[in-house]
Specification:
Layout: H1 3-9, E1 21-28, E2 32-38, E3 51-56, H2 63-75
Antiparallel strand pairs: 1-2, 2-3
Length: about 90
Amino acid sequence: MSEKEREIYKGWKDDVIQPMINDFIVYVPNYLMVGSVSDLGDVQCANDHPHMTLFLRPQVKAVESNYVLDNLHKAYPDIFKKRTKKVTSLSIPY
C-alpha cells in the first residue's frame, strides 16, 4: 500500500461507527452498484466523488465505480450538489 493510501486509511478504525450520508445510489444492472456519500466527518477520501461500492460482478474492478461517478458528474452535475431530504430518481438510458 502506498504512503498516500496508508494516510487515507488511518481515518478508518475497526469496530467504530463511521457515520456518513448516502446521497444517492447508482445501479448499472448486473454490473455494479455504487452509493455516493457525503458528510464523512474526519475520514479522508482520495476520490473526486466519495462513494461506497456496494456490488460488483466478479469480472468488474472496484475502480469502475469511480469511472461511473465521474461520467455521471459530467452528464448530470446537479445531482452532486448538497442534498436535502428530498428523494430524487433519475433514469439514464443504457
